[in-house]
User: What shape does this take?
Amino acid sequence: MSDPGAPPVVPGSQANHARPVLWLITLVAVGLSLFQLYSAGIQPLGLFYQRSVHLMLIMTLAFLMLPVFGPRRRRGLLGWALDGLFLAGALLTGGYLVLYLDDIINRAGFWSQTDIVVGCIATVTVLEAARRAVGVGMTVIGAIAILYAFAGPRGELPWLGQWLPGILEHRGYNLDRLVGQLYLGQEGIFGLPMGVAATYIFIFVLFGAFLEITGAGKFFIDLAYAATGRQRGGPAKAAVIASAGMGSISGSAIANVVTTGAFTIPLMKRLGYKPHQAGGIEAAASTGGQIMPPLMGAGAFLIAEYTRMPYLEVVKVSILPAAMYFGTVYLFVHIIALKQGMQGMARSELPQMRDVMGAGWHFLLPLLVLVWLLVMNMSPMRVGYYAILTMLAVAVLRFAVWFLFIAPRQGQKVTGATLREAVKSGLAKLVGGLELGARNAVAVSMACAVAGVIVGVVGLTGLGLKFSSMMMAFSGGNLLLALIMVLLASLVLGMGLPVTASYIVLIVLVGPALTAEFGVPLLIAHLVVFWYSQDSNVTPPIALAGFAGAAIAGAKPMETGFQAWKFAKGLYLIPLFMVYNPEIIMGGPWPLLVWTACTGFLALGAFAAALEGYLFTRLAWPLRAVLLPSIVAVFYPDLRVEAAGAAAMALVIVGNWLLSRRELRGAGSV
Assistant: This one.
């Protein structure tokens, strides 16, 4: 346990919050985390009870943490008046369903006026909480969805329907019907996205918070440095490995950048990487943390729910694509280190593997318990609960051993006063972990709530089928063009939505077309959309993770964004590889699986070499030109074409290696 007496670092703490407000934030956050632990491991609750209480506490936390006029301005009398109204709306939203759920179910479809009024308040409150927690883009898209539902001859806004293109026209819906769909049904605010956020996602966010607050982040970073620090471009390679581990803890590419990047980016710059390269490498690696099993941000849980596949199955099939992605980023890093003649760090500057494992091996135990319980087919929510208990038990036992046996040898006496201080410190860390987990869950839960609004409108109006028809019309039935359209749509959505919400909205819109019209298997369609939903982190002009890396590196945001886009090329190519080689996800004969995996790694390596113009030594333009059609050939669903492409790539790579050996011998003889 690192720094037992250090106060927990809780994101979102504002200096201009009054002390009573800070205490109230802590109380609500700890209460939310305890409620989630109770429902995950002790007494599971019904669908609406669980989701409504979760959303009520999440919105209360959002309104307390984030003032109406922004976190940098004091609330003042008007601010408190508005925040008081929204806090009352948050409490009403959850409390009404909990108190009157049986009555609401009994009059299903015949809503009372009170039901409709409370539903309207709930919808407005959700949109405002999302504006504060996620951003105005989320609220605007949710509002547009509601206006679209009202647009039509039978809707509340019939005149608006006249402005819709013919393919998007629908009958229109009145207020009662829409509120019934969004607030009182199972396909709106309290639909599947909120269900996943209120169960699986929260419990694993809480698990990540306890890992973070007990020092697991530093352990994984040190482990990566000990393993790769002495290699060429060691800090950059450590960034790739550390980001793979940290991504499963933080659940956010940007959080991953600022956490690991604070250590890795300065070291990369010191080693010789240009500032925009260092920021881009960290952004690309951190984005990969979102597609890295076992958690994949929140994606693995959502994909499992939508496809009705076991969570463990989603995790298993995602391992190879994630390895391909990180392998590509790692190769880019290695090639740049070779091109610029970089060396590794000195042994004296690096942590030793023995010391790192000795200080933090206990952080591996909860992860082993997590994997073991998943293999035993236990519910992911219950798995997260036991993983948290294991984390706490291991941390307490390790601290007790240090306090009772090691500290006395170092001259620290064990007295009643020091014991009380240790218990007080441990309780502070426990409360800090519970609070941090709840705070970290606010953004993703609010994103899922508004995504539920969008999904509810899509289901009510039939927009998903209309979007499928549009895809068929614009792509002309060509699968590659359809996938490019999905990529562009994900980039546009990613400008206003976080990854989780972007995935949910996009899969509802384009998923039916990919599976029904183009024959893409359901699981692959979901994985493709989920991977493409990450692209706003690394694709200019809205490369959010790239901009975070630029801030740390002291580089220009757009230059860093373009570097991140280059290093993250696997994010665009690997989904195509899944579609055209479905056996790597759906399974098949072992020889075919091995062949497909090898050609996939070969193609990604060749692509990195062609893009950088370097592998073992400089790669001439004619050879780079040969590599590009060879890479395309590997995606072609014909074994002879694949074999020809793989052979051409292998010849170029082997030839480049032989040339580098000849250059070394020539330099040695001189």
Summary: Confidence is low (pLDDT under 50) at residues 1-15. The first helix runs from residue 19 to 41. Residues 598-670 form one domain. The two ends are 55 Å apart (CA to CA).
